[in-house]
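Weekly sync, protein design subgroup
Attendees: M.S., D.O., the rotation student, P.L. (late)

Item 1: inverse folding check
M.S. brought a backbone from last month's batch and wanted to see whether the design step gives back something sensible before we order anything. D.O. pointed out we never logged the input encoding, so this time it goes straight into the notes. Structure tokens as presented (364 positions):
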């Protein structure tokens, strides 16, 4: 919500996200600038149907030609709950036939499964999301294409990488303003420091990628190009503070440097190979340590991590007075080892694992 408000877009909270009304320019700004959203979908039709003959008639009335051209490759994601029409394959078939009826037999309907975790779905396939609840069909079109966390810079990864959107959520939820010092002492392939640099330099996260809505027949590509060029002109030439990242794994730091270079922020980061025990905070107050330590689910066992958390807490308390710690956590017992007063900022999921973004203030 805060991100949308900052873009001048009035929105309301809905289950699973936020909703807003707007024209193509608002859609473009949302895709270009939202740092924490997974995708932006547009609702194009809603109707009630309890029999397939009703569904067929109403689906054919949808103005599909506004969003795809004849011969376009399309795919569907269909869910149905508490409805008379519950067979998702049969529902998908009716919508595919409706598109072919409206646009002609040249339409190419893809039935291939998409792997959104890895982004291996056909980049040219337009996704339609069909939700059926209590016999009401809501038809939406995906305007983003590849999920928005795929900024394009992260090609080299370390173990258990976090999504770019989650890293941005940690930074924004913590209140970091892009001007105070920031350190990630377990940075892995550099996602948190890179997202911090993008925020500090006001670089739109979607600046160097493409979006599905640009291919829609009614979208003026020249206006989209102008919108993107304007965003590029808002970027600052450099961050106002040095953003540091370190990791004991030399391979992870190599990956972080490569990713930072692709993101265009390598000059804003200080990346080095060093253990947690070597971490030092600057003399400045008001800085942030933002990190995603292992929490004993995928990378290491929780029992073996107690010392790591205890050490992190001791270093923060002794070397970082008047700073704040922001961590991603899935284990309350490990959190306790920090010996800091922690407040919960956000609950979400990371790779299917329930996690919390926590903030702890360190008194001087």
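Designed sequence read out in the meeting:
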């Amino acid at each position: 919500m805060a991100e949308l408000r900052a873009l001048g877009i009035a929105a309301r909270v809905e289950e699973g996200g936020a909703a807003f009304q707007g024209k193509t320019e608002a859609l473009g700004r949302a895709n270009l600038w939202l740092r924490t959203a997974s995708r932006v979908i547009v609702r194009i039709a809603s109707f009630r149907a309890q029999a397939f003959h009703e569904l067929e008639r109403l689906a054919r009335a949808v103005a599909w030609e506004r969003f795809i051209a004849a011969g376009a490759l399309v795919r569907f994601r269909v869910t149905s709950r508490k409805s008379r029409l519950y067979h998702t394959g049969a529902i998908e078939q009716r919508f595919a036939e409706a598109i072919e009826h409206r646009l002609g037999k040249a339409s190419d309907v893809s039935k291939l499964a998409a792997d959104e975790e890895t982004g291996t779905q056909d980049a040219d396939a337009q996704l339609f999301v069909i939700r059926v609840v209590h016999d009401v069909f809501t038809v939406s079109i995906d305007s983003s294409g590849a999920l928005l966390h795929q900024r394009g810079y992260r090609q080299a990864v370390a173990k258990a990488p976090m999504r770019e959107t989650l890293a941005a959520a940690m930074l924004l939820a913590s209140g970091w303003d892009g001007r105070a010092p920031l350190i990630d002492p377990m940075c892995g392939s550099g996602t948190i420091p890179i997202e911090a640099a993008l925020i500090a330099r006001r670089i739109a996260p979607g600046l160097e990628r493409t979006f599905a809505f640009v291919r829609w027949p009614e979208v003026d590509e020249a206006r989209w190009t102008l919108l993107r060029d304007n965003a590029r002109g808002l970027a600052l030439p450099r961050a106002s503070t040095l953003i540091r990242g370190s990791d004991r794994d030399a391979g992870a730091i190599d990956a972080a440097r490569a990713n930072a270079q692709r993101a265009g922020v390598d000059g804003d980061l200080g990346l080095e190979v060093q253990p947690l025990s070597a971490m030092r905070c600057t003399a400045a107050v008001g800085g942030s340590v933002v990190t995603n330590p292992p929490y004993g689910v995928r990378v290491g066992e929780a029992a073996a991590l107690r010392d790591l958390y205890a050490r992190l807490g001791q270093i923060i308390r002794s070397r970082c007075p008047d700073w704040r710690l922001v961590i991603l956590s899935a284990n309350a017992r490990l959190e306790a080892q920090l010996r800091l007063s922690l407040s919960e900022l956000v609950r979400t999921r990371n790779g299917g694992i329930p996690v919390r973004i926590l903030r702890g203030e360190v008194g001087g």
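Discussion: Confidence is low (pLDDT under 50) at residues 112-120. The longest strand covers residues 73-81.
Action: P.L. to compare against the previous round before Friday.
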